[in-house]
Amino acid sequence: MRHNNGFTLIELVIVIIVLGVLAATAIPKFINLQHDASRAVVQNISGTLKSAMDFVNARKEIDNAETEVDYNGNKITLVNGFPKPSAPEMRHLLNMDLPSTTWTPNWLTVPCDDSEFCILGNRAYTNEPQIDEVTSGHIVFFWPNGYVLGSCFAYYANLEIDGVSPVIGFEDSGC
After folding, report:
1. d(CA 21, CA 16)
2. Residue 1 resides in a domain
3. Are 42 and 149 within 8 A, CB to CB?
């Protein structure tokens, strides 16, 4: 009597089918993790901006400042009592180490690829992308590497109206 210690063809086919089914269910969930991470990044930037505003407001009150505050050793210029929506100001507020050359004229069509984030500041509220609740002033946008500025970004808008708080938020439908 001879005993074979191998697998039959049917057993191998069943194992391949089971692995295929597992891969078909696991891979889409793994791919969505990147999108979930991008959503989390833009939401985190928005939350960090809100926290930074609290610190700036506290510093403004402590120093009785109107035009600038010292924030972690950096001067933050104030416009109508709130940080100017420029890239350098936001780098200091968020303590981000971004290169100063992340601007591109094709930000709606060319993905961010120079750094972890791209930043575009001092944009008039009428420029793309427009934010419904922003009806005046200037905006600064942050979007993650691999995305174009369009539907996956965080923003800070100084409405430049005395006593009116900035608008801070995010758009993550395209992440």
Report:
1. 9
2. no
3. no
Q: Which domain holds residue 118?
A: 9-171
Asked whether residue 148 is domain-assigned, the answer is: yes
* Core vs surface per residue 149-168: b (16+ CB within 10 A) or e: bbebbbbbbbbbeeeeebbb
Strand arrangement, sheet containing 74-79: 68-71, 74-79, 82-83
Q: Which tokens belong to 85?
A: 């929506």
Partners of residue 140 on adjacent β-strands:
156
For residue 109, which amino acid is it?
Answer: T
CA 66, chain centre distance (Å): 29
Q: Which residues contact 128 (CB under 8 A, 6 or more apart)?
A: 108
Residues 64, 12: Cα–Cα separation, whole Å = 76
Please report the pLDDT score of residue 100 as a whole number.
53
Taking only the tens place, the pLDDT of each residue in 40-77 is: 989 999 999 999 999 898 999 998 988 999 988 889 99
Distance CA 22, CA 86 (A): 48
In the chain, the number of structural domains is: 1
CA-based torsion, 156, 161, 165, 169: positive or negative:
negative
The three-state secondary structure class of 137 is coil
